[in-house]
């Protein structure tokens, strides 16, 4: 039986009464009540269409028919505890393995990016028998207590930095310590990690891992300098630690030219652990940790069984397989390249006209405002980065619509918060 649909005002009042106030809405001054969606479009209770530049989770588009059909068909047949033997989980693991370096071959399926990163932290500590973690400034890796502890974006607002956490400078070549005019910013920023390792070791501490988003998101959608990951991995491994690449936001072909964003650092570079999440299930809760046989073996050797009731269940894996099928059939990585190139060129043209746009940087689409029925948002340490993170089916026409709206905003000086934006970032399409 379907639930009664309330008027927007009643829904808002009920939410304020029933839902924790720390669970905030998009556009809180005038929330949009969304009742249906398809592709890159959202629709409110009045049938008004909005262009969605926010929902990177809905990777292949909202309510994609092949994904919903796969979910429905498997749900009607079987959904069971993941500890029962079933084909879907091994088929899905095999498909994912084909996208990764060969040494990343052991999978653990879970239900959220936070859960994946928490498990990655456990794996790293079990394998290395060390505790300390190095992270980037402004990083965010999830909402569990273990992950708030390694997320400067969160812990600086709460209990502060733990002694076992070491924070490296964000490798931002636009605003950071070493900028684009530096002869080798990748090496220079990697050396700041080496300095942290040396300082920790002088204090008798031991490094378990370097935890990093392959393209820092909350930190401002930063495109990392070439050579940074390989050199950092060299330093971390020499200190007895492992390299963890957080691909929860950036994985599954969003950078276009590669399936995983860490591959932008070179075809020969391979992390020791990779986490993935958000886009995996196209809105269905599905995530994963993949690692090497050696690290997985150390986790098994502790003698404590690991199980996850829902992680890798038949329905979740059927959905994950359908997402991969859609990506291939609709050439969404190719679309990422084409649309990304086009949007970046449009925004470069705007940058030439408006000095307040400090940077257009690019492996994709990330931007922010709610106007003319376009849903966008801002991010970065000073909330100064307009970011795009749309479904991968975003079109050339959608790109032109967004560019035209930004130009209109600049020309008319509307919305002071928007006008003060100094960095426009393209992110989820390879430029």
UniProtKB/TrEMBL annotation:
Q: Which InterPro entries match?
A: Aminotrans_3 (IPR005814), Aminotrans_3_PPA_site (IPR049704), PyrdxlP-dep_Trfase (IPR015424), PyrdxlP-dep_Trfase_major (IPR015421), PyrdxlP-dep_Trfase_small (IPR015422)
* Signal peptide, first to last residue: none
- Has the keyword Amino-acid biosynthesis been applied to this entry? no
MF term (GO), any: lyase activity
What stretches pass through the bilayer? none
Required co-factor(s) are: pyridoxal 5'-phosphate
Keyword annotations of the record:
Lyase, Pyridoxal phosphate
Task: List the GO terms this entry assigns under cellular component, sorted alphabetically.
Answer: mitochondrion
> Where does the source fall among the domains of life?
Eukaryota
Q: Please name the Pfam families in this protein's record.
A: Aminotran_3
Does the keyword Lyase feature in the UniProt annotation? yes
For this chain, the family text in UniProt reads:
Belongs to the class-III pyridoxal-phosphate-dependent aminotransferase family.
What is the name listed in the Swiss-Prot or TrEMBL entry for this protein? 5-phosphohydroxy-L-lysine phospho-lyase
Species lineage: Eukaryota, Metazoa, Chordata, Craniata, Vertebrata
